[in-house]
Every structure is written in C-alpha cells, then in structure tokens.
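sry for the spam today, last one i promise. struct tokens for design, 327 residues
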C-alpha cells in the first residue's frame, strides 16, 4: 500500500478567505449529507470483497456496533490496471449491501494515482463509465458519496488540478444530486488541502476529504489540533470536510505502531472526542497485517475494536453540535 511521508504538526496554513461568508446551497447540501454520520471504517481495496468476507451479516453487525459509514474503492489505476466495468460491479454490489444494512457509502473510482497517470487519455473515459454505472443503480443520494480518486500521490495540487476538476465534473454531470468527494495532493494530506494551492469552489457540492496517520493518535491535544485548524479552513473557504482515513503513524510502520493493536481503542476514542465533526473513518478492514481492525479470515471487527467504535459513535451522538446538526 502506498503511504505518504508523515506530516508533523502543521505550520501556519493560509486560508482562501479572510472572513467566513454565507454558506452556499451546495455546501449546505454536503453538510446535510454528512450530518447523520458519526464513525466509519475503511475497507481496503479488493481482497476483502473478492474473498467474500464483507457479507450481509457482517454489515448488519457493523451497523449494530455504531459504524455509520464505510469507504471503499477498487484497486484500479496507478500501480494497478484499470478494472473492467464487470469487475467494478463488485463495488456497486457492495455499495448496495452497505446501504441496505443501514449505513452510508463513500465510493471512489480510482486508487492511488500520480500526475503522470492522471494525464493519460483513457482516465476521463474510465471515470465516465464508472459514473454511468453508478447512475444506473439509482442509489439514494443521501446514502452514497462518490469520488474520482482515493489518493493523489505526491505531485502538487496545481499539477493535478485540471484533470482532477475534469473528473469530478464528469461525476457531477452524471450524478447531479450526489455529493462528490475530492481531496488534495500528497495522499490527501491536510497540509496540502489547506496550503492555499487547492482549488475550492463553494458553488459545487464538493466534500473535501483528508487522510492522516498521526504519530500522536492517542493524544487528545494532537487530535484537537487537526479539528481546530481544519474547521477554520473549511469555514473560511465555505466548504465541508471529513476525515476519510485516520490511524496511527508513521505510514511506513517503521516504529511498529501500525501493528501494535493494543492501543487502537485509544486512537478510536480520541478521534471521536477530539474531531468527531470530521466523521473519522478508521483505517482499516484488510487482509494485510497493518492497521488491521478485523479478525483473521473475516471482515468481522475484532471485539475490542467493535467495542471502541460503539463507544466512539455513542460519544459523537451525544455531542451538542451533533444534536444541533440533526435537529
């Protein structure tokens, strides 16, 4: 799995607007979509789906354990060949199963891609085919958000901008009632989202996603640091953000922290307490060995993880800001 170099505590991050302006109808739509969500999990790439682990029974169990949303994407693009539409249908089937189990889906069409890959002539057509396939499913727009890319690797926001905007517009044209997810360069790092180089259009229903593998994921102060800075940026730019990936750093697991599962419940608790507004989505249900939330040979959450997510989800549901957002 590709992982970016971990960013430490951010330095001063410029904002696009000096003062918060009125919320646009597009941003309001995104905020309504996000409002009922609390705590989510990622399901990594294809292995879990291909092995048949993500069963209806497991999904119902997730929902009963307080999981409100699941993020999925195929191993397509970048170091993988583009998947066929026949294979992409597996992620459409999974999306429907997640929705029917009572949760919300975040579905991306491509995996980790660099600027060179995104410049390929076949990328827009691939996104267009995926968008048509999603539209044909007639999903409830309140229950699924769609993105072009899981992560934009390396590169710069300006280097990705033209093709990123083209692909997100393709999705919007095919799915005009849906929230479209986008993110910044350097694997969705919060710093590249907030450094002033990311194009933000408050008139489009865009949800800005960020990913972080925090060395101090067990520290409430460290988690609150991100919530405070990201919320200020979102307010100033009249947009909405959410945490698509959260976990312990460093991303290369050079310290072994990503495979020391004893501390994972604390990471989950701190994320809920410190940045519940970002609807943290924990990394990950996987066949791999790092950041593993699930049991062996199954997508079922390990008991201590399930208990931690249930507690985290309940904590968010009890917050005043959450109650205000949900009437």
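last one done:
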């Amino acid at each position: 799995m590709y992982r970016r170099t971990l960013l430490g505590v951010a330095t001063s991050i410029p904002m696009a607007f000096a003062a918060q302006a009125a919320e646009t109808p597009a941003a309001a739509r995104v905020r309504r979509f996000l409002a009922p969500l609390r705590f989510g999990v990622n399901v990594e790439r294809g292995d879990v789906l291909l092995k048949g682990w993500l069963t209806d029974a497991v999904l119902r169990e997730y929902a009963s354990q307080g999981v409100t949303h699941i993020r999925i994407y195929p191993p397509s693009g970048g170091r993988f060949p583009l998947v066929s539409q026949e294979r992409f249908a597996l992620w459409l089937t999974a999306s429907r199963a997640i929705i029917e189990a009572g949760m919300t889906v975040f579905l991306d069409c491509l995996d980790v891609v660099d600027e060179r890959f995104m410049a390929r002539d076949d990328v827009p057509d691939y996104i267009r085919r995926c968008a048509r396939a999603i539209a044909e499913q007639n999903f409830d727009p309140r229950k699924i958000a769609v993105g072009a890319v899981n992560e934009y690797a390396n590169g710069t926001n300006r280097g990705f901008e033209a093709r990123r905007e083209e692909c997100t517009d393709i999705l919007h044209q095919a799915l005009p009632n849906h929230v479209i997810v986008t993110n910044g360069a350097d694997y969705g790092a919060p710093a590249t989202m907030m450094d002033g180089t990311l194009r933000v259009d408050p008139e489009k229903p865009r949800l800005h996603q960020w990913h972080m593998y925090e060395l101090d994921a067990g520290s409430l102060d460290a988690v609150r640091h991100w919530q405070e800075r990201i919320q200020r940026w979102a307010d100033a730019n009249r947009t909405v953000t959410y945490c698509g990936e959260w976990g312990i750093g460093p991303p290369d697991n050079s310290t072994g922290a990503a495979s020391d599962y004893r501390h994972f419940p604390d990471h989950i608790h701190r994320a809920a307490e410190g940045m519940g507004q970002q609807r943290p989505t924990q990394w990950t249900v996987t066949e791999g060995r790092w950041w593993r939330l699930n049991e062996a040979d199954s997508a079922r959450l390990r008991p201590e993880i399930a208990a931690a997510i249930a507690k985290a989800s309940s904590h968010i549901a009890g917050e005043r800001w959450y109650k205000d957002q949900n009437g």
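The CA atoms of residues 124 and 167 lie 6 Å apart. ok im logging off now
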